Amino acid sequence: MSVCTLCVYLPLLLHLVSSAGKTLTPSLELFGAIGSFVVLPGPGEKEVQNLQHLRWAFGNVRIIDYFYHSPQNATFTNFCKDRCEFNSSNGSVTLKDLTAQDQGLYKVVLDLNANNSRVFKLNVMERLLSPSITTGITMVDQDVNLTCHVAGGNPSSVRWMKDGQMMTNNDVTYRLLRNNFTLQILKAKKSDCGVYTSVLENRVSEVNHSYHLFIHGIPSLHSITLSLSIVALIFGCTVFIGITVSCILGGSTAISLPSHRKILLFLQLASMVSLVALMAAICFWGKTSGYSGIIVAILVISSLLLIMISVAMCSMKTYCWDWFNNILSTKFCSVMVDAVTPLGGLIVIFSSGILIDEILKQAGKGCESPGNLLSSILPAVIVPSVVFVIFFACYARQYTKHKQRMRTNQQVGRNQQRDPVQMPMIGMPGGLISSNVANVEEMPGVGTCRL
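^ thats the sequence. predicted structure below, dont judge the formating
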């Protein structure tokens, strides 16, 4: 062996001997995705200016030898010759088309000095594929599970977001299971519906998937509210229809006065039941949506109507207390007795109908929290009140005209009794009036409709 050959291979031999038995400790950990590329960092532009030789190796397999200040090009081995690019300006190597076999330790040695080397650990990972989210039962008051599935890759972390806000295990309304792959919502409520996003990531990729969760059904308190509203609606319709029929048949002989009084008493009791059911329904609704000013106002109005209907029931009898009879005989009390029962029936019909509609809309859409009843109950109270006031005003006007005609006829009858000359009767063909005209009954339907 010549001296020149010995000078060339002696440093290589010394490098192999000095590096044998040493444990390679990586100074930097790199990550790359299968099919992509990674850059193995070199010593840098300043340091390579003073270098004579640079070598890259994969474990004990040499990848490249490069001699600076020499016309010789970089010498690649067959290990990854077609997939490597060497940058002589900074000594870095770009490794393309990564495979799982490329994972391991890479070492760069400067001037064949084992003490002047750096080790990098390359981790080759599979990219995450698009995930999916599945769920089971999505009913209110039930535990709802959202489970994330990934078709490929190994995620290092799984995070959940609701409507763009990060979710953690600190919230008692839900919990994370199976290494965060399953989000369990405890005793689901309407407010739990929304857009849930699972975010999966590893060191080489990040993917996410969104799922719009709908919570169906209605809470138990709303179920009670719905039942009470239906009861109130049925009794309210019964009252209003019964009052209408009673007024129509009040002046006929098809029904006797005692039977008529019993019917009116039943309608008043039904009106009280409908008001009590409505008040209970609004109270249960208030427990879920809060007691706003309009809910309190409706409860006060319903309580006043209950009192007034009780007074109307008392007006059907005569009592031994003169002061109480005097109160019942006042004009205000008389008008109140006539109006309170049908007015209460109208308010119950509209209010319970709106409550039922609100609850059924929530059950259908699944994502509505208990709404504000201000915009819906106000029309339910105002509209029937205005309609009834107009109706009652027209009724009162006709009743007043009838009373005036009655007084005129009675006055004509009295004059005719004092004067033997027969006087024509106003509004009656033939011009005569009988002696009992003063006892003509009032307008049919007015007294009979008084509740």
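The radius of gyration is 47 Å.
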